[in-house]
Amino acid sequence: MKDASYIGRFAPTPSGYLHFGSLVAALASYLDARSIGGKWLLRMEDLDPPREVQGAQDAILHTLEAYGFEWDGELARQSARHAEYAALIERLFSQGMAYACICSRKQLEGSGGIYPGTCRDAGHCADGAAIRLRVPSLEYRFIDRVQGEFRQHLGREVGDFVIQRRDGLFAYQLAVVLDDAWQGVTDVVRGADLLDSTPRQLYLQDLLGLPQPRYLHVPLIIQPDGHKLGKSYRSPPLPPDQASPLLTRALRALGQQPPAELAHITPREALAWGIAHWEAERIPRCRTLAEAQLR
Ligand code: GLU
Running DSSP on this structure, what letter comes out for residue 54? Predict the structure, then answer.
């Protein structure tokens, strides 16, 4: 079945290099888009310059190219979208849907990450404050294509969340929702560490009258000690000369059944095999997958 209206994306954060876990997420979103004849966009989520590793943006692009990925259109950068984020925050603030919060990190210790609502009705000025979005006391529910039903009570399990930090940086939750809608993304395919963020994003979509994409969360690859294979744990960057063997391994992590020869052909050919044989139904229905479990 073909569906040319499908628009997928990969949205790396340049706080580190791509690692095996990001390859699994990139590959899943790529194959899901290409196998149905859809588009695949690339968006650099460079919202947080202090956490950006110098040279990471270029390294990410080179790695994707070395692994044979081809994206449609121009690379989008969140750093070029500040005016849109600021205008939206201004609107939410002036309409009372968001408010200024001056709580210190210390004050919030012990609240278990759920904002207790201290500044909700305080009427603080926005200058020099964090901006939080008021969340309703509602349970959000959605059906993930792999993980199945996911429920989260926004009021009880999340609380009012930050959309702009005190230092002026824009929050991921707000930027991702605006940009997915701006780029017309119909299908979000990403790591299961973001399953928990999805209800916040659904709420923002409702609030802003934006269409809701379909979601598919792939297992997060973890190290034997249980650490997420991610930038914060200095996972090894993907070696450019190991593209086909690692693509083959990533296909296996996604439950596909590539023949052993795939490790010895070009990355483009390995991806072409993946596109022709993609079965999203085979992705393991688990949130984490230990690296050691992979063949
Ligand atoms: N930028 C996020 C990351 O690198 C992914 C965001 C998303 O796919 O929604 O983890």
Answer: T
Q: Where are the chain's structural domains?
A: 7-81+184-193+213-294, 82-172
pTM comes to 0.95
Local confidence band at 219 (pLDDT 50, 70, 90 cut-offs) = very high
Residues 220 and 186: their CA atoms lie apart, in Å, by: 22
* Beta pairing, strands 139-144 & 148-153: antiparallel
Cα of 125 vs centre of ligand 1, distance in Å, is 31
* Best mutation site among 45, 173, 233 for ligand 1 pocket (most ligand atoms within 8 Å of CB): 45
What is the 218 CA–ligand 1 centroid distance (Å)?
12
User: Chain-wide mean pLDDT for the chain?
Assistant: 95
CB-ligand 1 contact for 45 (6 Å cutoff): yes
pLDDT of 223 > 80? The answer is no
Task: List the structure tokens of 250.
Answer: 């990533």
Distance CA 167, CA 176 (A): 19
- Counting from 1 in the atom list of ligand 1, the atom nearest the Cα of 230 is 10
Fold (CATH) for 7-81+184-193+213-294: Rossmann fold (3.40.50)
d(CA 44, ligand 1 centre) in Å: 9
Say if ligand 1 is within 6 A of residue 176 CB: yes
Cβ atoms of 158 and 200 closer than 8 Å: yes
pLDDT by residue (tens digit) across 141-183?
Answer: 999 999 999 999 999 999 999 999 999 999 999 999 999 999 9
* Between 293 and 73, the higher pLDDT residue: 73
CATH fold group of domain 82-172: Rossmann fold (3.40.50)
